[in-house]
Amino acid sequence: MSKKKIIKTVIICVVFAALIAGLIAMMILPQEYGKDDSLGIGKSSFGQRMLIGLQVAVLGIGTVFVMLILLILVVTLMRLIFQGAGKLKESQTAKKAQSLQKQDAIIEEKVAIEEDEDDEEVVAVIMAALNAYYESQEVTYKSNLKFRVRSIKEI
């Protein structure tokens, strides 16, 4: 190594050692900073003040994390409640669909049995089926649903 590198390394080591010695002295030696206070922090050493500061920091960070955990629990609880309401709504929709299928099956049976009867009965069955379908749907404009069967053609 060259002389310049050795000198730079020695200077850096001396400065670093002086900083460490100063910090140790500040931690150990009692010093008076400011006025008297009720906790006696002004007369405590640097190390004691660092310890108090660390305690305050841990208390603050701990409070934040506890509140975040509570917030997560509340959001999770709300999600479970609303998912339960959604499942209830789905089950009600499934029940409506089953009742519609039963009504359609009954109407189809009636139509199959009464195929050879008059056209007026067929029209009545078709009108009843349409009426049952639109009553099961959530239509807000039911007053506009007026049907007239003008002709029936066999397909």
Structural class: mainly alpha
Number of domains: 1
Shape, please?
rod-shaped
Are there runs of 5+ residues with pLDDT below 50, and where? none
Query: Average pLDDT, to the nearest integer?
Result: 78
For the report, how would you describe the main beta sheet?
Answer: none
State the separation between the terminal residues, measured CA to CA.
105 Å
Hey, roughly how much beta strand do the residues contain?
Answer: under 5%
**Could you tell me the radius of gyration in angstroms?**
43 Å
Q: Count of helical segments?
A: 3
Percent range of helical residues: over 70%
Number of strands: 0
SSE order, as H and E?
HHH
What does this molecule look like?
The protein has 155 residues and is mostly helical. The chain has one domain. The chain contains 3 helices and no strands. The model has no long low-confidence stretch (mean pLDDT 78).
Fold blueprint:
Blueprint: H1 3-28, H2 46-113, H3 119-136
Helix pairs in contact: 1-2, 2-3
For the structure shown, list the relevant keywords:
mainly alpha, 3 helices, 155 residues
Quick structural summary:
This protein has 155 residues and is mainly alpha-helical. 72% of the residues lie in helices and 0% in strands.
